[in-house]
Write a structure and sequence with these properties.
With 204 residues, the chain is an alpha/beta fold. It has 3 helices and 4 strands, in the order E-E-H-E-E-H-H.
């Protein structure tokens, strides 16, 4: 898997009078690792040697996305019942991408291959980040919709269970995306290269 989901941190507070509110805060950052090479084989070896690893695996990848969920919830106690008050779900994604440092002097064919590959890597990792943001919004809606409970202890357990379920669903969605992408990689790269070749021919 080319994404890394870090443990969710969900803090809880009790509020007796604050009005209900909901919020999703998403942020994104980028980092890069440098590779060198003047042939396709050299670039492939560099990606395999310098690429990031995913959680629980020593295998290296041409790109990766680190994902961290967090959140806060408050409870409102009224007339012997407890309900969710404020809900805030946060998600931060860090996209890790390769950067080719020895492009100068490389062949036009290798540059074209690299442009196609690097754009596909970036598109893939951006989609991982988008899946995480979508799931953060789904988690916020699910927590906000939880039914009232007889005690805030029971409400807290319900919120905890829902946040765990949301993270598990997120991991399933990410893994399914990676499986689909792996199957279609060759066709996708051939299409990208064909489009770039046709684009160059059209500019001549």
């Amino acid at each position: 898997m080319r994404y890394m989901c870090l443990p969710v941190a969900f803090s809880i507070a009790l509020s007796l009078s604050s009005p209900a509110a909901a919020e999703v805060i998403a942020s994104k950052s980028y980092s890069y690792f440098d590779i060198r090479g003047k042939t396709a084989d050299e670039l492939d070896r560099e990606l395999s040697r310098r690429g990031p690893t995913a959680s629980g695996s020593s295998a290296r990848h041409p790109g990766a996305t680190k994902i961290r969920f967090g959140g806060e919830a408050t409870y409102i106690q009224d007339n012997g019942r407890c309900r969710v008050g404020n809900v805030k779900v946060t998600v931060h994604t860090q996209i890790i991408l390769p950067r080719w440092n020895s492009r100068r002097g490389a062949s036009k064919e290798l540059s074209m291959i690299w442009d196609a590959l690097s754009s596909d890597i970036k598109r893939h990792e951006e989609r991982h980040a988008e899946i995480a943001r979508d799931q953060a919004r789904a988690m916020e809606r699910a927590i906000r919709a939880l039914p009232q409970q007889r005690s805030c202890e029971a409400m807290q357990e319900l919120v905890s269970n829902e946040s765990t379920r949301g993270i598990e669903e997120h991991d399933r969605l990410q893994a399914r995306f990676d499986r689909v992408e792996a199957v279609n990689f060759q066709k996708r790269m051939l299409r990208l290269l064909k489009n770039r070749i046709n684009g160059r021919a059209g500019r001549k």
